[in-house]
């Protein structure tokens, strides 16, 4: 693939991502993207088989970036608690720094596009597996007490997704400082999964 072709592909993805973020994926069309990029619709089909293929690519590339950011952050720590918090914090950092990429991963409804390929979905699940492994280590170290580590991992993502949604959708009470809200939310989640040890 030549540099020109690569830059065109990236431009298609960039404009499509922004379009989905601002207008929603339902109104996305190859013709609209072609017009925005300044090429014919045929040129779009040289890179993407159809609209679903384009959206799948957007999801996959954004999910890969998110996974890499989380894994790199976790690898910088050795203690289980620090690694646990780093995973949660890097998730928030990525979402707030890359709202368009974050939204494309989680806001496109599965029943509105072709089924996401299993092999690609498995790549997304790597982050859940990483968090689950840290939780299992926390259980082994007696700093966490959970019956279902995988459910706990998904529960954590759900909680953080709610926190991020409040911030990105500007639903936070104006009396609350955004940074403080995020910091305390992360702290509540982390502490909520740790065993409280009372000394007498």
- The quaternary state of the protein chains shown equals single chain
Main sheet record? none
CATH homologous superfamily label of the largest domain: Tetracycline Repressor, domain 2
According to CATH, what is the class of the largest domain? Mainly Alpha
Report the end-to-end length measured between terminal Cα atoms. Answer: 68 Å
Please, how many domains?
Answer: 2
Task: Indicate the proportion of strand residues.
Answer: under 5%
Could you say which overall geometry the principal axes of the C-alpha atoms support?
Answer: elongated
CATH fold annotation of the largest domain: Tetracycline Repressor, domain 2
Radius of gyration equals: 20 Å
CATH architecture of the largest domain: Orthogonal Bundle
**Overall pLDDT, averaged?**
88
Structural classification: mainly alpha
Say how many strands there are.
0
Q: Total helix count?
A: 9
| Poorly predicted runs | none
Q: Which percent bin holds the helix content?
A: over 70%
What is the H/E order? HHHHHHHHH
Provide an overview of this structure.
The chain is mainly α and 200 residues long. The protein contains nine helices and no strands. The chain has helices spanning 3-23, 30-37, 41-45, 51-75, 80-97, 99-106, 118-140, 149-168, 178-192. Helix 4 (51-75) packs across helix 6 and helix 5 (80-97) crosses helix 6 (99-106). It is elongated.
Summarize the structure.
This protein is mainly alpha-helical and about 200 residues long. The chain has helices spanning about 5-25, 30-35, 40-45, 50-75, 80-95, 100-105, 120-140, 150-170, 180-190. Helix 1 (about 5-25) crosses helix 6 (about 100-105), helix 4 crosses helix 6 (about 100-105) and helix 5 (about 80-95) packs antiparallel against helix 7.
